[in-house]
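Here is an idea for our session: we take a single protein and study its fold together. To get us started, please write out a protein record for me. Start from the sequence, derive the backbone structure tokens from it, and show both lines together. Go ahead whenever you are ready, and we will take it from there:
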Amino acid sequence: MHYLEKLFTLEGKTAVVIGGTGELCSHMAFGLAQAGATVVLVGRNAEKAAQRIAMIGDNAHFIEADVADRGSIKTLLDTVLARFGSVDILINGAGINAATPILDISTEEFERILNVNLTATLVACQVFAKYWLDHDLSGSIINLGSISGLGPLSRVFSYSASKAALHNLSKNLAREWADKKIRVNTLVPGFFPAEQNRSVLDESRVAAIMNHTPMDRFGSPDELIGATILLASNQAGSFITGHELIVDGGYHAMSI
């Protein structure tokens, strides 16, 4: 057991979880905290954050930030360093969805989805990676992708497009920083009922998803924890970068 604890421990590490007040990322943050990390949840809803912190425990904290604003992300980094002394792990999990049909979506709505799901992730990666590079430090970035980023998903084309771009961005960043001790990976959930997709999960869509998922069920948010800790750990995941780690009950492996 001692060997496994050493391999997966995050003791002494600080993890910033952007989108940490949401359903999936809060459980990922819980796992990081259980592995010993100090966890900083980032969002704009203090009330929701308080509920998540009560679940996670004393290792969790909340800092309010606007993920779409570069200045706010820089202030976030400065605040984390001032309060906790270091930052080792960055999770980009903020995301929004829309079911607006292709011919009906406005440029403004499409750009808003791209801004939150893609551009904000790039900005956070730039800000945190620059700090690590300037101080010759190692870091692990986990970007939350989607099974819809690997193939088109009906009804949510704008979300799918933004996640496909995020997957490609993550690989580019991984290649850019691979020899600089910064690892960048994409955690790819399949179908996990969450706030941004509940509105499109009607009876017929649930049936279609189950027909395409060999495990014949939705994922539970705590089933992302193991993958999160693996990618976050510089011991267990030391040679993993540019990877898309799929957690989907076999959805991506299904054809007919």
